[in-house]
């Protein structure tokens, strides 16, 4: 479980942060079938996507920092001898 969390903590937090940023910006659902449709929609609604990106960064930066720190702690903790029983 520790190995799984250490590996996937960052991407999961980034996905969660994007979701929070999108919800905070007022965009209920973004469905785009093609990358060009995404670019065209971003060009026509820069404020909406800007708010989503800002919300994402506000959640992602501290979240990813905490996730990386926790992953490093788990890796360091796993490197200690099992007899120490500190994990």
From TrEMBL:
Residues crossing the lipid bilayer are 48-74
Q: Kindly state which keywords UniProt assigns to this record, in alphabetical order.
A: Membrane, Plasmid, Transmembrane, Transmembrane helix
Full protein name: ABC transmembrane type-1 domain-containing protein
Taxonomic source organism: Kozakia baliensis
Its organism's taxonomic lineage begins at: Bacteria, Pseudomonadati, Pseudomonadota, Alphaproteobacteria, Acetobacterales
């Amino acid at each position: 479980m520790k190995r799984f969390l250490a590996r996937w903590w960052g991407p999961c937090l980034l996905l969660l942060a994007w979701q929070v940023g999108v919800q905070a910006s007022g965009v209920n659902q973004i469905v785009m079938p093609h990358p060009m449709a995404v670019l065209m929609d971003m060009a026509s609604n820069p404020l909406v996507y800007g708010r989503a990106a800002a919300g994402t960064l506000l959640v992602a930066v501290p979240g990813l920092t905490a996730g990386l720190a926790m992953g490093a702690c788990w890796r360091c903790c796993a490197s200690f001898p099992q007899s120490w029983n500190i994990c």
